[in-house]
Each structure stands twice: as structure tokens, then as C-alpha cells.
Amino acid sequence: MPRKLRVEYPGAIYHVINRGDRREPILRDDADRTLFVAALGECCGKTDWQVHAWCLMINHFHLVVETPKANLVAGMKWFLGTYTARFCAEDRHESGEQKAREIVSAELKRTGWTEEDLNRRRKGDTKKVRIAQRLRAETTMTLKWIADELQMGAWTHVSNLLSRQRKLDDEKPIVSIVRTDPILGLTPFLKHLAPRVELPDEIIRRARMPIERMLEISAKPLENAG
């Protein structure tokens, strides 16, 4: 079922949300952020928009926009098309098949794989996923090209693998939280947690200390943190 037409009228205020294709990143670095803001500024100059608030995330953005004229759809079409074209411009991000093949060759050399190893490994192999991540970050090759080049099956499968890996990369391991933050839990809880995250004995010892002493040494490195 198609989306309802956007209601437009002079003076309307909208909360606009837009995500990257398949929830992939819409920017890579501060240069991209500058590019985004510049394109948004140009758009406001062309449309007379007033941006009351905005939030730029890794794979999506939010805008609170007031449109003195009834031109939200036309303005967003220009803004998204312009930013996307500039984002993908070859003078900003080196791309192309040659660049992609160089990356694959470098990764094979780093892992000690041959072309035969690449073809023989399972479709969802962790190293294949890492290579695919680098290709998506540093080139403009399509998911279909990556899937065929790395022998990873359908491009939709690659998309799902990359999405899953991004979520894993974004999760902060429990052990790193426990090792770096003040320990306020009770000793029984920490003993229960320890075998699951290979908790150092030093943390268990700290749990028996008065809270004031724990806070004093919480910033010091652990003896057995490894």
C-alpha cells in the first residue's frame, strides 16, 4: 500500500526523518558532516526553510523544519539528491572496481588466504564479513558485486550479515563496562557474573570494600585486567 501524500501548506512545521539505504551509514567522517550541513544550508536558501532543530546520526537524521512555502517535498528531493551525489563523488571517496579489487587482495594477503580459500569458505565467514564491511566503507561497489566477488551468496544475505555485524560492533562488552566503571554491585551478583565474562579476581575483591574506597580506586587500572 503506497504512503499517503504529504500534506503541504505555508507555515507548516514537520519532523523529518530519513535513513540510509538498508540502514547503512549516510556519512563516514567529519568531512561528510560538513558536506551534509552545507547542503542543508543551500537547501534552506533555495526554499526559505527554517530549521528549528536537527540531529545527525551515523545512518539517519532528524530535522524539525518550518516551511514558509508549501514546498517540503520539492525541497527534500533537492536536498537528498544533492547530498547523495556529493557523498558518492569520486573526488571525495576513491571508488571503482580497481580500488575494490586492491582491497580484496590486501585483505587476502593479511589473512593468509588464497583465492581458493576465499571460494571455499562458508558464505557467512567472519573474515568475509569484515572484508565486505571495508568494501562498503571505502568504495561504492554494490552489495551484489561484493556478494559475487567474495562468494557470499545473494546480496540480501550480505546486507543482513553487515547489519548484524554493525549491531555487534556497537555493543559494549559487559566485561569492559565492569572493568572501567565503579563497581557498585553486591558480591554474590559479581560472583554469579564472573564466570560468564571472565571477571578478574580483583573486581570480586573490590566488592568487599567500603563504597568510599571503591570510588577512590575505580579509576586505577586493574591488576588482572589483562
| Main beta-sheet annotation | 3 strands, antiparallel
The CATH superfamily of the largest domain bears the name Transposase IS200-like
**Would you count the extended β strands for me?**
3
The global form is elongated
Tell me, rounded to a whole number, the average pLDDT: 77
Task: Give the N-terminus to C-terminus distance in angstroms.
Answer: 55 Å
CATH overall fold name of the largest domain: Alpha-Beta Plaits
| Strand arrangement, major sheet | 1-3-2
- List the uncertain runs: 172-186, 207-212, 222-226
Rg to the nearest angstrom? 24 Å
As a percent range, the share of strand residues is 5-15%
CATH class of the largest domain equals Alpha Beta
**Share of helix, binned:** 40-55%
State the domain count.
3
Which structural category do the helix and sheet elements fall into? mainly alpha
> Helical stretch count?
11
Say what oligomer this is: single chain
* SSE order, one letter for each helix or strand: EHEEHHHHHHHHHH
Structure description:
- The chain is 54% helix and 10% strand.
- α6 crosses α7 (155-170).
- It has 226 residues and is mainly α.
- The termini are far apart.
- It folds into three domains: 12-87, Transposase IS200-like (Alpha-Beta Plaits); 97-170; 174-217, no CATH class.
- The protein has helices at 30-47, 72-87, 97-111, 115-120, 126-138, 143-149, 155-170, 174-180, 187-197, 201-207, 211-217, and strands at residues 12-19, 50-56, 60-67.
- The longest helix has 18 residues, at 30-47.
- It has a three-stranded antiparallel beta sheet with strand order 1-3-2, covered by helices on one side.
